[in-house]
Amino acid sequence: MSKVNKLLHDWLLQSVSEKATAWLEQKQARIASGAAERVFFMAFSAVPRYLGKQDLQLTSQDLEAAQDVLPGWYPGNWSVDQAGRTLLLLALPHNDAEGYVRSLDQVFSTADMGELVALYQSLPLLPHPELHRHRAAEGIRSNMSNVFQAIALRNPYPADYLDNAAWNQMVLKAVFVGSPLHLIWGLDRRANPELARMLANYAHERWAAKRSVTPELWRAVGQFADTAIIADLERVLVNGDIAEQEAAALACAQSSLPEAQALLSRYPDLQSSIQQGNLTWNSFSSDACGELR
After folding, report:
1. Average per-residue pLDDT for the chain
2. End-to-end CA gap in the chain
3. pTM assigned to the model
């Protein structure tokens, strides 16, 4: 926690005034010393008024430092108020796990959308992360896209702590709402057979309705391909546009089944590009989505 605190504090020093920093440090000290909960709640609400809402100005070195502290932590899209609110959350006394979770429950229950985004982004950084699974699952169910994306995208908490049922629900919802799957941390590591079946079924529903399927869907499918899924990949290779064909080829390359390798061999240009390392899921996401993971 001390490393997280130091990074957030240093980043804020570069982005807000000395007066704003002094206000935040004073509130942190009071909260850490056991001040009444209302001190925390009032400060948490007031952060944007004192610090502002501008983006943190982070360098590539700053982002690397975040990864060193916690793999998957990406504060590159954080604002100063989100960083300040996270520092206040980290200042809450947490020796009593149940009391700490009660305090979090209270702030979650009264938070507006901006506060919820900060809360969900901070989950992987907070003490007792194993106790926040129900909160993460609640964020996944949110109808507010900003809140859903705060927990689902560029956030290591789901991959590290959610069970397969909640994880699969999150990935499927991301596909449904059009969120970029390559921004889900741990997508490849947490891929599983049930998720592959769910995504293939979703693709069939879209096709039946004469609607398109995001090519990224196949990223979590290929390594668990069975005969039916290989037939789906063949359909995409035969009828899809170039992005869809590339995704289907990458999915085939992930499969150890001879049928999948035989299908891929029918597209020698794509097969060669994959074998030479020119076509990967990361390069695909960069080209298709205009943004690297």
Report:
1. 94
2. 25
3. 0.92
Q: Do 148 and 117 form a contact (C-beta atoms < 8 A)? A: no
CA distances from 272 to 36, 189, 219, 266, 278 (A): 64, 25, 19, 11, 9
Task: Tell the residue number behind the tokens 């359909």, with chain if given.
Answer: 235
8 Å CB contact between 89 and 126: yes
**Tens of pLDDT along 97-113?**
998 999 999 999 999 99
Q: Is 166 exposed, middle or buried (0-12, 13-18, 19+ CB in 10 A)?
A: middle
φ, ψ for residue 257 (rounded to 5)?
Answer: -70, 135
Q: Are 121 and 78 in contact (CB under 8 A)?
A: yes
256/290: higher pLDDT: 256
- Would you say 40 and 31 are in contact if contact means Cβ atoms under 8 Å apart? yes
Q: Nearest-CA neighbor of 173 among 133, 136, 210?
A: 136
Radius of gyration of the chain from its Cα atoms, rounded to whole angstroms: 22
Q: Measured between alpha carbons, how far is 165 from 11 in angstroms, rounded to an integer?
A: 36
Q: What is the pLDDT of residue 287?
A: 66
Q: Any idea where the domains of the chain sit in the sequence?
A: 2-162, 189-289
Enumerate the β-bridge partners of residue 55: 79
Residue 55, phi then psi, degrees to nearest 5: -70, 145
Cβ partners under 8 Å of residue 208, min gap 6:
none
Q: What are the residues whose beta carbons fall under 8 Å from the beta carbon of 17, sequence distance 6 or more?
A: none
DSSP label of 54:
P
Question: What does the alpha-carbon distance between residue 161 and residue 130 come to, in Å, rounded to a whole number?
Answer: 7
3-state SS record for 55-106: ECCCCHHHHHHHHHHCCCCCHHHCEHHHHHHHHHHHHCCCCCHHHHHHHHHH
Contact 200, 208 (CB under 8 A): no
